[in-house]
Amino acid sequence: MRIRKLFKFENAHIVRNCSSNRCKYSIHGHSYQVELILQANRLDHGQMVYDFGLLKSAIKDIIDSFDHAITFWQKDDPEYIAACKNFSARWVAMPVSPSAEQFSRVIFFWADAILQQTQMQNGESDVMVYSVIVHETATGYAQCFIEDVQNEQMGKLNLADFEFSDEVRAEWHDPLMYNKLINGEKFINPKVALQVDVS
C-alpha cells in the first residue's frame, strides 16, 4: 500500500554547469511541489500506512527548510556563497547541486533517515519512502527512488554535509532536530489510546 503527501516551498538557486545559460548564470526561483510517497506491507492500528498528521513534524520541518530560502552547492564560488549567507537570512548549503534531481534525492534521503530513527507507537510496520517527486515547474519534475539515493555517481549524501542558516533552524519545531538526526537519536511518535479492539 502506498500513500502520497504533498509539500510546497518557494526556493531560489543557481544550477551551475547546466546547459541553459539562464539557469547557470542567474539566481532564479521556482514554486516547488514535492510528492512524498510512503509504502508499507501492513496498516497501523488506525488502518493507515502512516498517519498524515505525523508528517507535520520533523519531515515537514526539514522540507520547509527550503521555503523562501536560497540553496547553493558547497562547491560554488566562495564569494557567491558568502553573498548568499550575507544577504539572505534563510539559506541551505548542500554537497550537491540544487537541481530538481538533487532536491528529490536529498528529500528522500532526509525523510528516509527520519523514518528509520522514528520510534513508532501505533502498530506501524516497515514504513518506508517509496519515491519522491519534485515538481520544479508546471511541466517538469524529477523522481527519485532508493537506488538513486544510494548511487554515489549521482553524488554522495551524508547527513553531516548539509548546513542550515540559524534562521532556518529557529523555525523548526525543535531547533536541535538536525543535530538529533546526525547523532542517531530517536524521534518518538505520540502514544495512541486505542478506541477499538484490533486483536
From TrEMBL:
It comes from the Bacteria. It is an enzyme of class 4 (lyase). Transmembrane segments: none annotated. Its cofactor is Zn(2+). Its EC number is 4.1.2.50. Pathway: Purine metabolism; 7-cyano-7-deazaguanine biosynthesis. Keywords: Lyase, Metal-binding, Zinc. Pfam families: PTPS. It catalyses: 7,8-dihydroneopterin 3'-triphosphate + H2O = 6-carboxy-5,6,7,8-tetrahydropterin + triphosphate + acetaldehyde + 2 H(+). One of its GO terms (molecular function) is 6-carboxytetrahydropterin synthase activity. PANTHER family: 6-PYRUVOYL TETRAHYDROBIOPTERIN SYNTHASE, PYRUVOYL TETRAHYDROBIOPTERIN SYNTHASE. Belongs to the PTPS family. QueD subfamily. This is 6-carboxy-5,6,7,8-tetrahydropterin synthase. It comes from Moraxella cuniculi.
